[in-house]
Amino acid sequence: MFLTAKLNLISGMVIGAAAILAMKQMCKQRHDRKDASMPADAPQQ
Q1: Which residues, 6+ apart, have CB-to-CB distance to 21 below 8 Å?
Q2: Rounded distance, CA 25 to CA 3, Å?
Q3: CA 24 – CA 28 distance, rounded (Å)
Q4: Angle value at C-alpha 37, between 33 and 39, nearest 5 degrees
């Protein structure tokens, strides 16, 4: 029982870390795309 609990904890941490990395990557791509679509001389808000 302790082994399965440990396995569930580790797999949950791995899945959580993968989800965080995926969200960071998506936010970075969205931010880069937003910057690329704006002209360089546009005033920043």
Answers
A1: none
A2: 33
A3: 6
A4: 135
